[in-house]
Amino acid sequence: MTMKRDKYIKCSRAARKLEPADLVLKNAKIVNVFTDRVEEGNIAITNGMIVGIGDFEGIREIDVGGQYVTSGFIDAHLHLESTLVNPQVLISKAEQHGTTTFIVDPHEVANVAGTDGIDYLLSQTENVPAHVYVMIASCVPATPIDDNGCTLTAGDMIPYLRHKRVLGLGEVMDCMSVINGDPWMNEKLELFDGKVKDGHAPNLTDEELAAYVIAGVTTDHEGTTYEYVMKERSMGMTCHIREGSAARNLEMIVKGIVENNTNTEGFCFCTDDKHIEDITDEGDIDHNVRKAVSMGINPIAAVKMATIQPARCYGLRRTGAVAPGFDADLVVWDSIKDFNAQMVFYKGELVDFSKKIPEPPCPAKLMDTIHLGEIDPEKLKIRLDGKPFPAIQMIPEQILTERKDIMLPGNEYFEPDGNTDKIAVFERHHATGKIGVGAVVGFNLKGGAIASSVSHDSHNIIVIGDNDRDILMAVHELERTKGGYTVIQNGSVYDTLELPIMGLISDRNYSYVSKKIKKMSARAHRMGVPKQMDPFITLSFMALPVIPEIRCTPRGVYSVSEGKFLR
């Protein structure tokens, strides 16, 4: 990145101490990601850029009192929509925890509203005091068997290639289309030649992963074990260690890194999907760093995984380090063990979290995206045929599932018994009337149903319940609110969080959303959902047919590993 001459001259003069810097942070313990040392000194900033480290004077000076300073943290992969609040709210909450750069994949909004959804996210993040970059959604729909709202072709992507905040191609979820060289996928890969291509590659064989990498995919965030991410590292991939609300992979991966004294240069941190209340309660990327350090990762190595390594991965030349020529996106921490953010700077300005940034209006058409049509209750019935049924076995703290062939309880029809619940997915974009129905083990919901219009990645309405009456009531409640989360108990609506913006995002404030989620999640746990399982985020992944092993879609129960419908 080049700099205008007048700006350069001012920075150059400040660097040579010919004039005072705009701002100097004094008495800092600087984490140097190039020397792997903590160095004491002052940080000189001019025109939003770091111009020197050492004995500088500034027009403004802030004494940080010997506290630690790092570059702002980078979330290497996330979906802003998954936080359920306006993107500006999420960015503010995460930035309070020291995250100043966000690598966003907008495939949730793209699956509902196509380019209108992508444009919505770009407009909402245009003027925030943070770096928000976008990876253009590669798989809309995620697979040819999905029923989503829009299709995003290579031609639709061309205008975004010139956008200053678009870095590359978002997670390529349809691995087999890549590996098989399907023309429509190959066209997208070629379009983004020379740019970063994010991966989504759970449980590929060695041969499949090699073919995937040959296509130019360079990152992945779906690794859940140390052994698998090391297979990816052996092929040169950058591995994003994910710690979100439902998928918590950090502990297993970091344990292997520590035990094997593995070089951490090829690793970054990401959240992927994290609820706003979890960010508020435990943190954002700072939580990942803190947890990794507590498990034995060297603190400076952990900082590099959150700063310079993702910056290099995505070609962000002036991001990720406290050094001359880098943007002054800085965080003052109490320690490099606890990582509690004390001050956050964006381009040399102390971020004022009380300042309200005007939100661009949401287009009306994005507030009306639930189109169910006529619902036939008979489609919810599963007739027993005396044969084992392929049920979805949930796995706590994972979004992976396992196939479990079981005899369903009931007489003529499946009757949930508290251990085995019914799952149903209702197509909601084009009023086709499609309803896929299956059985799920491990959710343990009793006395009602919970439903969500957040259902990755096609975002149809997904429900788990122990009776058809409450399942139907849940669907009609979300039809009424134009999307959201709802809990139905014993024939009554317990509560609903309205998500009218594309059925994904609330138009209310953070406090409202947080209180609703906590209240409804607590009730779901009292109704039997395991405590270690986030009821709504876990539910939202049960229809995603690109993550092993078995899912339920509007077309029926689908085996990801076999690539076919089972019922």
Fold blueprint:
Layout: H1 5-15, E1 21-32, E2 37-46, E3 49-54, E4 58-63, E5 68-71, E6 73-78, H2 87-95, E7 99-104, H3 107-113, H4 115-124, E8 131-136, H5 154-157, E9 166-172, H6 175-179, H7 183-191, E10 196-199, H8 206-214, E11 219-220, H9 226-234, E12 238-242, H10 250-259, E13 267-270, H11 276-282, H12 285-294, H13 299-306, H14 308-313, E14 330-333, E15 341-346, E16 349-350, E17 389-394, E18 401-406, E19 420-426, E20 435-441, E21 448-452, E22 461-465, H15 468-481, E23 484-489, E24 492-498, H16 510-526, H17 535-540, E25 550-553, E26 556-559, E27 564-565
Parallel strand pairs: 1-4, 1-5, 6-7, 7-8, 8-9, 9-10, 11-12, 12-13, 17-20
Antiparallel strand pairs: 1-2, 2-3, 5-14, 14-15, 15-16, 17-18, 19-20, 19-22, 21-22, 21-23, 23-24, 25-26, 26-27
Q: What portion of residues is helical?
A: 25-40%
Helix count?
A: 17
Main sheet overview = 8 strands, mixed
Write down the overall geometry. Answer: elongated
Summarize the structure.
With 567 residues, this protein is an alpha/beta fold.
Description:
The protein starts with a helix and ends with a strand. Helices cover 27% and strands 26% of the residues. A hairpin with an 8-residue loop joins β19 (420-426) and β20 (435-441). The strands form five sheets. Strands 1, 2, 3, 4, 5, 14, 15 and 16 form an eight-stranded mixed sheet that branches. It has an eight-stranded mixed sheet with strand order 18-17-20-19-22-21-23-24, sandwiched between helices. The protein has a five-stranded parallel sheet with strand order 6-7-8-9-10. α3 (107-113) packs across α4 and α12 (285-294) packs antiparallel against α13. The protein is built from 17 helices and 27 strands. By secondary structure, the protein is of the alpha/beta class.
